[in-house]
Design goal:
single chain; 87 residues; elongated; 3 helices; mainly alpha
Length: 87
């Protein structure tokens, strides 16, 4: 995640120096979307590991079956819907 932060920051600085750097801007947008997705996914999964009403540790694991695949596709679909709404 640190590499994405660094990449996004460097690309943002590079775009600020050039007015028409469309390729750099595209790379920056891709890095920013990946970073936002990673932060959201990390928070989504880490909140699931917090015990709800007892003191037992309840680890959350993403199943490697169709349920896990649906969770990944659903998260990606939410980001695409947000991107469409913003644009």
């Amino acid at each position: 995640m640190g590499a994405l932060w660094l990449c996004t920051t460097v690309l943002a600085i590079a775009v600020s120096f050039r007015a028409r750097a469309t390729r750099i801007l595209l790379y920056g947008v891709c890095c920013t979307m990946a970073l936002a997705w990673l932060i959201r996914w990390t928070l989504l999964i880490q909140v699931q590991t917090v015990p709800k009403y007892n003191a037992h540790l309840i680890p959350y694991t993403l199943p490697s079956t169709t349920d896990g695949l649906q969770a990944l596709i659903g998260t990606f679909g939410l980001w695409v819907a947000l991107l469409i709404m913003v644009r």
